[in-house]
Write a structure and sequence with these properties.
alpha/beta, Rossmann fold, N-terminal domain of TfIIb, 2 domains, seven-stranded mixed sheet, 7 helices, 33% strand
């Protein structure tokens, strides 16, 4: 049985509640705000890119974009979607802890809490080391993670269930169930994913999967950055605006880093 990451079209549909264009606006604005040169990014690398929606949006705006992902199906889909849209996109199948592309970028991004697939501190530090090695002298790394209150409190920032409707296709998504308990020692939970897709004149399709999720706290992120020593934190945000991480309305933990 194939899982959610084996079906890039369905995964992209599940995440279509995101405003990718507005998020890229914020990412580009942050490069101007936090780069010492004050220049917008002209080259970008999206790590754990999946369908590479953000990388494709960067390419649509004339930014030289590269998308990296471990899953062959995701890479093939990202490449196909870029070609069909007439976009220049370099797609690389690689691991986010060991990639070596031989070039550097103005901006590297990891979106949608993809660092939850890094199960150990060693792997997180290796990821930061590899990322730092691919930043230009004035480059930035923007890392989006879930807000800590999603796992540490009874009042999460986001729901584990939602609905989407795009191009006549509707879907209900559940990413995690109440029974998916976080292991207090490893901080890993096996999140049960169920996606039900309906379209007129087509049979209903259900995708079921179990996705291991490693929860990282804010202090663990700080420790990983210090252990790496290759990066330093420039700023943190609670969403893709100017909301502080500690603000009650914050729903993400977004960290802007640069080479130390």
């Amino acid at each position: 049985m194939s899982g959610i990451y084996d079906d890039p079209w369905a995964y992209e549909l599940a995440c279509s509640f995101r405003d990718v264009s507005a998020e890229v606006d914020a990412l580009l604005e942050w490069t101007v705000r936090h780069r010492s040169s004050g220049a917008a990014a002209r080259t970008v690398l999206e790590l754990a890119a999946g369908p590479a929606e953000h990388a494709r949006e960067f390419a649509r705006r004339g930014v030289t974009a590269t998308a990296l992902d471990l899953h062959p199906a995701m890479c093939a889909y990202a490449d196909q979607q870029a070609k069909e849209a007439g976009l220049e996109l370099d797609v690389v199948q690689e691991d986010m802890t060991s990639f070596a592309l031989g070039r550097r970028f103005d901006l590297v991004v990891t979106m949608l809490d993809s660092t939850s697939h890094l199960m150990t501190l060693d792997s997180f530090v290796a990821h930061l080391d590899r990322t730092a090695d691919h930043l230009g002298p004035d480059g930035l790394y923007v890392l989006e993670m879930s807000h800590p209150r999603d796992r540490l409190t009874g009042d999460p920032s986001v729901s584990t269930g939602w609905t989407v409707d795009r191009d006549g296709v509707a879907a209900t998504v559940r990413w995690g169930e109440p029974s998916d308990e976080l292991d207090p020692v490893t901080q890993i939970a096996d999140d049960h994913v169920t996606m039900t897709i309906t379209k007129a004149d087509s049979p209903t399709r259900v995708i079921e999967d179990v996705v291991p999720y490693r929860f990282w706290t804010a202090t663990e992120l700080t420790a990983a950055v210090r252990l790496s020593g290759a990066l330093e934190t420039v700023a943190q945000y609670g969403d893709f605006g100017d909301v502080a991480l500690t603000d009650p309305g914050a729903w993400r933990m977004i960290t802007v880093l640069r080479r130390a």
